[in-house]
Design a protein that fits this description.
Elements: H1 2-29, H2 37-51, H3 61-84, H4 104-115, H5 131-161, H6 171-196, E1 207-210, E2 216-219, H7 224-233, H8 254-278, H9 282-308, H10 332-345, H11 360-371, H12 382-402, E3 407-408, E4 411-412, H13 415-441, H14 443-446, H15 454-469, H16 484-514, H17 530-554, H18 556-561
Antiparallel strand pairs: 1-2, 3-4
Helix pairs in contact: 1-8, 1-10, 2-6, 3-4, 3-5, 3-16, 4-16, 5-6, 5-7, 5-16, 6-7, 7-8, 8-9, 8-10, 9-10, 9-11, 9-17, 10-11, 11-15, 12-13, 12-17, 13-15, 13-16, 13-17, 15-16
């Protein structure tokens, strides 16, 4: 019961914050007055002059997408070059502690990973990267890539909010406002809380300490707090340490763990409220948020039940307390499960326990959260348009049932929109399933399975590609993904998962923005009712089952049924 008290308190705070945060985000991107204007408006104007942006000059969907691609390419190139020259950079840690070679394929994978908010890490941060790379390279990309995702989410919302419009806003304006008004002030406050709780923020050398057994231990430290909060707020994930959020320097107390989970989920949970406000249908946004909450609770209940039971292989030993393998004692089953569900739903690989040690049912929940496009909360902007596009599928199917041209929020779903919707839905299975199959039968792919094989090994490979396609970044630890095959193939999944989905979302938003809003009639399907919420929920389940049931049957389900 204590675990569920923690879950319900978390959800209650999340729901309570959704409306004020959602309305604040709407004001920021509608360029309405906020309490931070006096501080950030002069900075905003200066940035516009420096980069030559005319804030009132809006962009078409294609030009908005082009700006996103150019911006992301420059960020990827900058980080790649920084990684390749890190050996000559000044500052710590000492070179003797950097035991993982920075090859070109690893540098490319890492650079693209952080530029797409995936932050997939096929390396240990404290044993691979210099302090300057962590602070200048990774921290900056956590801010910039997170703000870019939020900008695309706002452009998508404008597609439903506008009529007879050829534009979706200005990418550079949305990027800067997301940085200044949303990510920067919150991450600064959050980082100070982390320092207060004991997270290091220094450039000191690694410490040598003698253990109680008499041996020597190297204790890594560095500018950890600078990276830790923005990685959660920007739904990036990836950490300063190889153990990520399970490391006591990155996540020292239950309070830091709880605040970290709120930082991950609050803005994505608030975006349905932003959506409802900007399209002038606030109850429609509430329904989308309710669908997210139901999906969240369903996954949480399944995972909690599986992890609260003692592992079958330990039956008869008289153990109690559930599946403690791979979990930190200070978090226990409750905080570990909550973190696993939040991070797998929110495009953030900031895990605090080793998912490779979870029960098969729990792993199935986590991988499905990612395969579904993280429609439950999701990343900054990406979760919202994933859920809205799933809702459009439900609207189309219901329209076929009654013989009426389907529309959503007054926007008609024509064959052109249907093609883009279908492409968005099939993109994940078209990428993840072939890549999983290739890795499962090739020597290069199987070389990464250093510990497990069979159904569990297949699940590890599926988990990796699902995580990269969803721009999540978490992995099952026993898959060794630092080789040329995985560095390049996971990079391809990250790229398609980020820019393929965003391209379709922007083009779809452009088509809707160009339409005139249809009047509501007796035949219009209301988007603010319990029935509509049930329609969206059932569509999510149906799409997931049709797309991924077979591979799940070969992986986690087969492992669960194995005697």
């Amino acid at each position: 019961m204590t675990r569920w008290l923690e879950y319900l308190v978390f959800l209650a705070i999340l729901v309570a914050l959704a409306k004020p945060v959602g309305l604040y985000v709407a004001r920021v991107f509608e360029r309405q007055p906020t309490f931070l204007d006096r501080l950030f408006c002069p900075v905003e104007s200066l940035l516009y002059r420096l980069i030559g942006v005319h804030p009132d000059r809006e962009m078409t969907p294609v030009s908005y997408l082009a700006a996103l691609l150019v911006f992301s390419a420059l960020g990827t190139l900058f980080l790649f070059l920084l990684l390749m020259i890190q050996s000559v950079l000044p500052g710590g840690p000492d070179r003797q502690y950097l035991t993982t070679p920075m090859t070109m394929d690893l540098a490319f994978n890492t650079a693209l990973s952080f530029a797409t908010t995936t932050t997939w890490q096929a390396y240990g941060g404290e044993s691979t990267l210099r302090y300057l790379v962590q602070t200048i390279g990774l921290v900056s990309q956590n801010f910039l890539a997170g703000a870019a995702g939020l900008a695309v989410g706002m452009a998508f919302i404008r597609g439903f909010a506008r009529e007879k419009s050829a534009t979706l806003g200005n990418f550079w304006v949305d990027l800067i406002r997301g940085l200044l008004w949303v990510l920067l002030p919150v991450s600064l406050a959050g980082s100070l809380i982390l320092v207060w709780q004991g997270v290091p923020l220094n450039l000191d050398p690694y410490v040598k300490a003698r253990t109680l057994e008499g041996g020597m231990q190297t204790i890594a430290q560095g500018p950890v707090a600078a990276l830790e909060f923005i990685k959660n707020l920007g739904t990036n994930g990836g950490g300063f340490f190889n153990a990520n959020g399970a490391h006591p320097y990155a996540n020292p107390t239950p309070l830091t763990n709880f605040l970290g989970m709120l930082a991950i989920a609050v803005i994505p949970a608030a975006l349905p409220i932003t959506f409802g406000h900007m399209v002038r249908r606030p109850n429609s946004g509430v329904v989308l948020l309710a669908v997210m909450i139901v999906l969240f609770l369903g996954g949480l209940a399944l995972c909690d039940h599986a992890e609260s039971l003692n592992p079958p292989r330990l039956a008869g030993l008289g153990l109690v307390g559930g599946n403690a393998e791979g979990k930190e004692v200070r978090f226990g089953v409750g905080s570990s499960v909550l973190t696993a569900i939040v991070t797998s739903n929110c495009a953030t690989g900031s895990y605090n326990s080793m998912h490779d040690s979870y029960q098969p049912v729990s792993v199935m929940v986590l991988v499905m959260n990612m395969l579904l496009g993280e429609v439950t909360f999701g990343g900054l902007g990406t979760g919202l348009f994933s859920l809205v596009i799933v809702a459009l599928v439900g609207v189309f199917v219901s329209g076929l049932m009654i013989g009426r041209t389907p529309d959503y929020l007054g926007k008609t779903i024509t064959p052109g929109e249907n093609g883009l919707i279908a492409l968005y839905i099939v993109l994940t299975p078209l990428v993840v399933l072939p890549m999983t199959a290739l890795a499962s039968v090739s020597s290069a792919g199987l070389a990464g399975l250093t510990v497990n094989s069979g159904a569990h090994g297949l699940t590890e490979i599926l988990f990796a590609y699902a995580s990269c396609m969803a721009n999540n970044g978490q992995n099952m630890a026993s898959l060794d993904a630092n080789n040329v095959f995985y560095n390049l193939s996971t990079a391809a999944a990250m790229f398609i998962g980020r820019f393929g989905h965003m391209a379709v979302a922007l083009l779809l938003a452009g088509r809707f923005a160009a339409q005139r809003r249809r009047a509501t009639t007796m035949g219009t399907l209301p988007s603010d009712t319990v029935v509509f919420g049930a329609l969206v929920l059932s569509t999510v389940v149906l799409i997931g089952a049709l797309s991924f049931l077979v591979v799940l049957a070969l992986g986690p389900i087969a492992e669960y049924l194995r005697p």
